[in-house]
Amino acid sequence: MSKISKFFKGGGSAASKGRGGPSPQEALARLRETEEMLSKKQEYLETRIERELAIARQHGTKNKRAALQALKRKKRYEKQLTQIDGTLSTIEFQREALENSHTNTEVLKNMGYAAQAMRRVHENMDLNKIDDLMQDITEQQDVAQEISDAISNRAAFGDEFDE
Description:
82% of the residues lie in helices and 0% in strands. By secondary structure, the chain is mostly helical. The protein has one domain: Helix Hairpins (Orthogonal Bundle), CATH 1.10.287. It is rod-shaped, with a radius of gyration of 39 Å. The protein starts with a helix and ends in an 11-residue tail after the last helix.
């Protein structure tokens, strides 16, 4: 079965059909395949256009009928080429939107994991315990400062004796 018929007849994997649609990776792969196929068709049409132009030049004024037919075919090919260009632009836009959506989904999942981890970390913390701990730390810092001040003051052993 060709890629085109698979694409239009829904020839996807059974696993993707079972869960309600293709995964983002499957959809991206299909869009890339379609882009590739359309690009090849573009190249083919471009060569056909060049060939028809060569035929028209070859017949020129000698065989106007053949030259006109070649130019008409060239015009048809150009119209098809324009349609393919539009389709490729649409597919490219769709692919980029899908890639962005997939990225956003992954970012959101990771943010959810981070929120759960933070919740687990904060689970064992109580605001009253934290407040008590902060008060204890402040008291111990004050005691340490008093001890430091006491040690750093000059000892005046001989100045305090009364005669």
